[in-house]
Write a structure and sequence with these properties.
By secondary structure, this protein is of the alpha+beta class. It is built from 14 helices and 21 strands. Among the domains are: 191 residues, FAD/NAD(P)-binding domain (3-Layer(bba) Sandwich), CATH 3.50.50.60; 95 residues. Bound molecules: flavin-adenine dinucleotide.
Length: 443
């Protein structure tokens, strides 16, 4: 395994009954607890783990969810504990079938790794960068690590967004992988706060989606409850609308950047715990391995295949589905080439959702909106407006967004009929926090 991030850990769990020995080579020094580390810098930012991914992680790593919650993570019902502003306005809250895990990314990674590394078949070697694939255009037979060549029946690339596998595969003569990039120039700025004492438990996640229909850049933000009674507060803006990186600039942007000042109201009563963290690693990027005759014995998954604009919170869940599918295809006697094609297919829904919105923002690089993109946006707008007052449509949207249901569920006849009929009530104009939540947050 190349990479001991979340995808690498999930693959180790997925394949532990198939291989006697699984070696995870990780270039970073791995901490012994839920701590930030150098090579996963995005872990400083809000990481929503959606039910569609969380259930798969829990199936691959039994006990994962119970342990994360025992460490203080929040079990947030969706849409019951979701205060969400879409392009249609604020959405209603109601107990639903989905959920979000309110945890920091370091906690998610550490719990997963801690359980998986206890398996005697799994060896995690940190400070062990892989520098080359070994093999030829027909078959990958191993990798070069710091102590020399390690031969393997299967090499999995889980090296994340910065993977060098396309270059290494070309060096083996396996051909050039086509890479697609659609980049809205989105920048993130994040600060972690201690929530007011009365709001440290039972507080919803609040998200505000950027609106691509205006002439200017998109701006959004989120307050996510995480372990330790903390809030992770992330704001973002596309090219030309990036959040400032100074404390004062960030604080102003939290209030005035997104389309409603609620996040600014909330942080006024919370205690800042960190500096302002920033990230620009947000472009949609995918390597089209599905178009190549890949060598056998090699599979890539997680961000090393497809990485998405993170505001939709899909990366970890797509990685989980990928690990699960890899196990199923190999168990059914399928080839690694077949597994790779299926893994590439798994990311298509998340790609369409993220890239399909990003093409509309000013200054986007890598694509411009086609008629299909314009039609899709008009459909999503109508669906969002309808979802405010028609439960069946909102349930379908939440299920698909949480990657718990296929995107095709949005096209179910009953849902389409409701979308055609349109909304029966307008969206809420204020965030649907309860009086008790407002009081506990000091509002
Ligand atoms: C700002 C931001 C916010 C995000 N928010 C969310 C969110 O809310 N929800 C969500 O689901 N996703 C989110 N994501 C996406 C999420 O971070 C990724 O999808 C996820 O990290 C993918 O896991 P991975 O294991 O594939 O890659 P990574 O987590 O990047 O791990 C890759 C690992 O490979 C190691 N590695 C790299 N090269 C080598 C080598 N040559 N040898 C050995 N080891 C190597 C690295 O050190 C690293 O440990 C966000 C991303 C960003 C940038």
């Amino acid at each position: 395994m190349i990479g001991g991030g979340l995808a690498g850990t999930l693959v180790a769990a997925a394949l532990n009954s198939r291989f006697d020995e699984i070696i995870v080579l990780e270039r970073d020094a791995l901490p012994a607890g839920a701590e930030l580390r150098k090579c996963v810098p995005q872990a400083k930012h809000a990481h929503l783990l959606l039910s569609g991914g969380a259930r798969v992680i829990d199936a691959l790593i039994p006990g994962f969810l119970a342990r994360v919650y025992a460490e203080g993570a929040h079990d947030l019902n969706a849409p019951g504990d979701l205060v969400a502003m879409t392009t249609a306005g604020w959405m209603p809250r109601r107990t639903g079938a989905q959920f979000l895990v309110g945890a920091s990314r370091p906690l998610i990674d550490w719990v997963a790794r801690d359980i998986v590394a206890k398996d005697p078949r799994v060896q995690v070697r940190d400070e062990s960068p892989v520098t080359e694939l070994i093999g030829d255009a027909k078959r990958v037979r191993g990798v070069r690590g710091p102590d020399g060549v390690i031969e393997a029946d299967l090499v999995v690339d889980a090296a994340g967004r910065g993977t060098r596998a396309p270059k290494w595969l070309a060096e083996l003569g396996a051909g050039a992988v086509r890479t697609e990039v659609i980049d809205s120039g989105l920048a993130y700025a994040t600060r972690i706060f201690q929530a007011p004492a009365a709001a440290r438990r039972d507080f919803p996640v609040i998200t505000m989606q950027a609106d691509s229909r205006g002439p200017g850049p998109g701006r959004g933000g989120a307050v996510q409850p995480i372990e330790g009674g903390r809030w992770i507060v992330t704001v973002s803006g596309t090219r030309g609308g990036e959040p400032p990186t100074t404390v004062d600039g960030y604080t102003d942007f939290v209030r005035s950047g997104p389309r409603h000042p609620i996040l600014g109201d909330l942080i006024e009563h919370a205690e800042p715990l960190t500096e302002i963290y920033t990230s620009r690693s947000t472009a949609n990027q995918r390597h089209r391995y599905d178009e190549l005759e890949l060598p056998e014995g090699f599979v890539a998954l997680g961000d090393s295949v497809a990485a998405f604009n993170p505001v939709y919170g899909h990366g970890m869940s797509v990685a989980a589905h990928g690990a699960h599918v890899l196990r199923s295809v190999l168990a059914a006697g399928g080839s690694t080439r077949r597994a790779q094609r299926v893994i590439c297919g798994i990311g298509v829904g998340a790609w369409d959702m993220a890239a399909g919105q990003d093409v509309h923002f000013p200054g986007v690089r890598g694509a411009s909106p086609t008629r299909r993109d314009l039609a899709r946006r008009a459909f999503v707008d109508r669906m969002s407006r309808t979802a405010v007052s028609r439960t069946r449509v909102y349930d379908a949207m939440v299920g698909a967004f949480m990657l718990a249901k296929p995107m095709s569920s949005l096209m179910a006849p009953g849902v389409l009929l409701d979308v055609l009929r349109g909304p029966i009530a307008p969206a809420l104009t204020e965030p649907p926090l309860t009086a008790d939540e407002r009081r506990r947050a000091g509002l």
